[in-house]
Structure formats: structure tokens, C-alpha cells
Amino acid sequence: MAVATKNIPAPDLVPIRRALLSVSDKTGLVDFARALFHAGVELVSTGGTAKAIAEAGITVRDVSDLTGFPEIMDGRVKTLHPSVHGALLGIRDDAEHRAAMEAHGIEPIDLVVVNLYPFEEVRRSGASYAATVENIDIGGPAMVRASAKNHAYVAVVTDPEDYAAVLNALDLNAGSLSLDFRKKLAAKAFARTAAYDAAISGWFAEALEIEHPAWRAFGGQLETVMRYGENPHQQAGFYVTGEKRPGVATARQLQGKQLSYNNINDTDAAFELVGEFDPARTAAVAIIKHANPCGVAEGATLRDAYLKALACDPVSAFGGIVALNRILDAEAAEEIVKTFTEVIVAPDATEEAAAIVAAKKNLRLLVTGGLPDPRAAGAMVKSVAGGLLVQGRDGAVVDDLDLKVVTKRAPSDAELADLKFAFRVAKHVKSNAIVYARRLATVGIGAGQMSRVDSSRIAARKAEDAADAAGLSEPLTRGSVVASDAFFPFADGLLAAVEAGATAVIQPGGSVNDKDVIAAADEHGIAMVLTGTRHFRH
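RESULT FIELD:
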């Protein structure tokens, strides 16, 4: 039931006479508390926060003195008391509220400084179920929400980064905080508790293996405000969720200008693709443009892999993203910087390689500390008008699939290796996806077309263009293999691949016309392998 409002106007300036401080993250706490104390603010605090302030020689009043009740149950109950919440929620210009506060000896609190138990960090650490539950803060969010709701009279600070702004505002307003400033603090406070609760509910869904919770929340923390989004007229910001998965959100940027919206999107696509290749088995490089690969290859070294990947489509590689599955070395760095590149992302980089990249001051170099696990579970979220589409990450890996030869001719060992390589890449190409591969390198990629036949033809044309650029007598699709992310609905897509020179095909199968497609493959002496698994990527 809605509560009727009393339409009492909020004061513009509220003098800050008493502050309650209860923080888990004590960064900047002592300096902030000292500044408040010197500004004439009475400090009230709890547990470890009170101890830290007192040990710094600053006068602080324990919250139990305010409530007349000790902390109990290992600190689980300390601020959940009418003397605290009445002090936060009381409407000071309401006669009934003021009378209740006076009758019960409730002293108003003007400033609340709270940051929450580190639930997100504990969750990421892989702590036990019991330890994770114990780090769910109850009193902190209750105080934050109470203060934020009553921002007409109370200012709430949830981020140590805001301490300086609070002190500056107090100085400008002779010890008071303005209504506009309190509103902004309240908005940030509610956003913080929302993200906190999203992390908790998300963890419960994972721990209890609830695939589709009745209510789903997602939260993140602003990492960067960007100049613009996909286009200059769109605003954009980058939010991080705290997920430990190695990638662009967790990477350390060694050099280069700020990443753009498109840089981050493309770098994520590039690193997720290269994560499909086990660095203990092979060196691998992926070159991405507009979230699609324009060249991917394995090699004995990163340099070899890069040159093979570049040869697939050297025109599209200009201004692209280069992802590597091993530590960037000097040999590879020297080759990469010869072509204009926006971002290089790798698990790490040698000092010599970093120095080579540093000569290109705008080129971003990101190191992630590891590779993403292609098999790991995770949620993928996409917004639609009025809702969210949520699905699990595509964790299917070709090495784990039961491949079935359905043609009269089976692929050779070399063809099978190329087929697996091509299907690994096709998983990361926008549908409809066609990938030609030869000697563990892409030689033609068709992406995002409405017709699978068109994707086949575009990939073949790309190969012809690359052959012309390299001065080759024929495109490398001659003698290649081809991968399709989904089944061929008709034989025409397969025949386009045959025309391009493919000798073997890998595809999911499952079409009502599979028999016709297989018959066409047999007619042309093509080997065909079915995976039983589709890799649509829209």
C-alpha cells in the first residue's frame, strides 16, 4: 500500500552536526574522519571503524552509546535499532516525527558514511557457501537505503572516492550540504545497493543452479565514461561486473589512448575467439574488425600465426584488433606494428615487445594475465525493447563434440585438423557464417549474411582478393576445407563452397534436406563431417 506524502518541502542546506561512520573499506577513512572532526562534526561509529578512528587519536562515540544496546551476535546486530533508523528516517520538519524523536531520545544523524561487506570480492575468491553468506551485509544496506530515502535531511556516502567532494561541499557551504548534492549522493547510494543485491541474487542462482530465477538483476560499476558510443551522437559508459574471466574488463592497459566503445566490443570478441586455442598446444592469433574475425591462424610462433592470419584479409586488418593466446614477444610485436592496429591484447608482453609497441603512442596494449575458458558457464545478456534476453554462454568446443562422417569419403588427417580449426573459428563469426581454412589458417570468411549461399560466395571472393594482393596464381580456397555455423538448408551453399575449391565440409547437420546435401557432397567427392551442434551468433 502506498504511503501518503505530507508535502513538506526539503530544506536546501542541511548543517552536518553528527555523522555515523561504518565502513568495510577503510581507504581514506582516518583522514576523512579527522577533517569532519575538525569541522565540528560529532563522530559516531561501530566496531573496527570506531577502533581505527580512535587509534588515530580522533574522538569518536561508539554506536552502542547511542542505542544503549551492545553489539551482539559477532557484530551481526549493531545498527539495526530505532535509535539509529529513527535518527536517519525522521522528517525533521514534521511535528509528529520530531515529537517521536524527542520522546524516545533519538538524536538526529545528518551524515552516514557506509560501504558494504565485500560480498563481490568474497564471491570472486571462490569462498565456501557459508563464508559467502556471512559476507552478505544487512545493517549497511539498511542504513544506506534509509539515509538515501530521507535525503531531504540526511547525506549518505557509499564510496571513498566521494570523501574529497563532501569535504569541499562542506567548506563551500559553511558546514552544510545542499539538497542537490544530497540527491546525487542518494542516487549513487541506491545504485550501489541495487548492484550489491544483484550480485547476491546472481550468486544464489548459480549456487542453487537456478537457470531462470523469477526475478533477475544485473549490476555493474562505472569504469569509464566514454567520448561516445558506436556513433558520435550516442552516449556511452563502460561498466564492470567484477567477473574474474580474463578479458578486456579485467585487463591492464600498458599504453595507448583510451579505449572506445567499439574498441572494447571488438577486443572482447577477439580475445574470446583466441581463447579457443590452447597455448600449450599452439600459438594462435585472431585479427578482428567490427566484432568479426578477418583472419585467424595457428602457427609454430606468434609471428608465424600473425602473418598467416594477416594474409587472409590484409585490407580489413587495417585498423583492427589483434588478439594473441601467448605472451606477446618482440618478433610478433615487430610484425604487428607494421600495420595500423587499434588494440593488441594478450595474456602478457615481454619488456622488449612492450617497448616496440610503445613507439606507436596511440596503439593500445592490453595484458590480461590469462585466457578465458571457452567451456566456462556464464550469462550473456542482450537488451530488447521492454526486456532482456538472457542465455548461457556458448560453451561448446569442437574437441568435445562427437564428429560423424556422413559421406563416402572420410576426411584425411590434415583435412580433419583444418575442419576442427575452421569450426572453432566459425563459432565466433556472425551468422550466417562460412569459414574456409587451409593449413590451420583462415583463407576466406563470410559473415552476417541473410543467405548462407551469399556468405559462401563472399568468403570465396575475399580469398580471391587476398590472392591478388599476395600475387598468387589462385585463391587459397583451392584445396581448403569449409565450416558452416549452422546446417545447409539446401545443397546450393555447399555447391558454392565446392566451386570455391573446398574439399571437405564441417557443419552441424539437422536439415530436412541433409540427404540431398550429403548426396551433393558425394557427387563431388567432398568429405563431410557433422557436429550435431549449431553456433548461431547474432
